[in-house]
Amino acid sequence: xxxxxxxxxxxxGGNGIGKxxxxxxxERGASVMVVDLDEAAAxxxxxxxxxxxxxxxxxxxNVTQAADVQAYVKATLDRFGRIDCFFNNAGIAGDVAPIAxxxxxxxxxxxxVNVKGVFLGMRHVLPVMLARKRGTVVNTASVAGLVxxxxxxxxxxxxxxxxxxxxxxxxxxxGEGIRVNAVCPGPIDTRMVHDIAAQVSPDDPGAVRRNYEAxxxxxxxxxxxxxxxxxxxxxxxxxxxxxxxxxxVDGGRTASPKGVTAKPT
Length: 265
Ligand SMILES: NC(=O)c1ccc[n+]([C@@H]2O[C@H](COP(=O)([O-])OP(=O)(O)OC[C@H]3O[C@@H](n4cnc5c(N)ncnc54)[C@H](O)[C@@H]3O)[C@@H](O)[C@H]2O)c1
Hints:
Helices cover about 45% and strands about 15% of the residues. By secondary structure, the chain is α/β, with parallel strands linked by helices. The chain has a seven-stranded parallel β-sheet with strand order 3-2-1-4-5-6-7, sandwiched between helices. The N and C termini lie far apart (about 50 Å). The structure holds nicotinamide-adenine-dinucleotide.
């Protein structure tokens, strides 16, 4: 997975999966533009890359705002001249509550970041890639884009939408040298899952993790690095025949949750 002379653009690059993936792109030779709502976090990722001898820049943007998205695309072109790999990753979890009680404003916010943000990213990056007839896009969906998760209606709806947008985009640009795929992480050890656990069980968030891990065939949460590895695979030429696909990184849970058996009791 060689990204020498490649330009990678990463949204949500200030923390978690985005940060680790930005660092992984840089370790393998890419120059990276780090985008995040949290400018200090974006700057910290870019700083970590340059400290390690890589090349990076950062810019603050709210992915729900078209003007901000156009500005991060322009900042990338002004600094690096093109975009080879786009990791369209920024996302939020929203509240944990059933549909019958879910807050309407939170629903709108989750859809705005996770769906409109992903749409706007492709809306403004794809024309840049189409002009060169080259590029790869990886959208961050989730296993919540494949199956339901009671208590997370906005998040589940938003991630199903990301998979839909991925398939549409892949078909639209398939003859133009551009591939578009989705990565579907299960629970990954970042602040997002810790926030969810704290909402579900404020007195014992660790219990949420233990219960969930008991249902994962590989027995543990994934790491941001394990997601980054799959993102880099989808972003590089090793996956040259892969487009419109969804790659699950969840320790096997979606395929075969532990404890669910056909054996009569
Ligand atoms: N952690 C998991 O278990 C998990 C599982 C499946 C999918 N995901 C997805 O992975 C992606 C990254 O999540 P993470 O776990 O690294 O979370 P995180 O909270 O650690 O990082 C998310 C980053 O996105 C940024 N962000 C949020 N809203 C933004 C906006 N409007 N504009 C620009 N940046 C914004 C945040 O500032 C933050 O730096 C998300 O799309 C999330 O839904 C995470």
